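@channel anyone free to eyeball this complex?
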Amino acid sequence: DIQMTQSPSSLSASVGDRVTITCRASQSISSYLNWYQQKPGKAPKLLIYAASSLQSGVPSRFSGSGSGTDFTLTISSLQPEDFATYYCQQSFSVPYSFGLGTKLEIK
Amino acid sequence: QVQLVESGGGVVQPGGSLRLSCAASGFTFSSYGMHWVRQAPGKGLEWVAFIRYDGSNKDYADSVKGRFTISRDNSKNRLYLQMDSLRAEDTAVYYCAKANHIVGGTVEDWGQGTLVTVSS
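replying in thread with the prediction:
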């Protein structure tokens, strides 16, 4: 099974900051990497698929990069609505594992 | 727009059974693979099961294999999760989710979830 390791587990930042979250797979997953955002009490929302493709309707301040085993999610200028928990997920092979999440909090 | 509405959650004793249902609308249900994903209270996301658009292939997490069964009825636009031999660690919000058309493992749309509590 493929293990997904996210870092950091939590992060404090201010509105307007540039933020980067990393995700590492235990083996190569090509570009089969997705990023999700989840707010408290709500269902997750797909932000980025195939490592770098922006899901329809997602603001362009979100971007993803990477391939193989190392990936990043970048938010170019944090907005108040971006404070949430972010998860990476590999869609390369079953079981489709998620990272443990990164909680982004207001500084 | 895509709508996924789960039902069937509740409180069940350890060793008991429960059947979750998901009503899908706003897309051609019979053309898409579907997932169940769960989230224990205060914890992260855990992928549970996937079924191909035509029901011909099903995959499960090791933690539920042999106890849970995913199925679908394309004539009713419904997805199901039969959960047997339930354990306390199965307590979670269960999300019904639509797969991406190209990459089946990508979860494109999510329902609001239904809570399952396994407790005596």
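from a first look: The two ends of chain A are 36 Å apart (CA to CA).
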